[in-house]
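Example 3.2
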Amino acid sequence: MQDAKMQKAIEHFILRRINDCGMRGSESVDKAYEILEDCSEKLRNKLNSEQQELFLECENAFALVDGELMQCYYRAGFSDAIKFLMGWRDGEWN
C-alpha cells in the first residue's frame, strides 16, 4: 500500500516538474530550441511535399525522444535524491 502511494506521489511530482520546466525553461535551453526551430523552418521551406511529410515524421519522433529523455533524467535525479535522503536517514552517509 505504501509503495503504491509513494509511486503515485513520485509520478505526480515528476509530471509537475516537467510541466514547470516546460513553462520556465532556462535561457540556454530556450535558445537551443529557438535555433532548432529556425533551422527546421529553413529546411521545411526547401522541401517538396513528399519530403515535408517525412520531415514532419522526424520532428514528431524527435519530440517523442525529447520528452522521454526529459522523463528519464527526472526519474533518475529523483531516484538519486530519494536514495541519498534515505541513506542519510539510515546513517549510510555518516
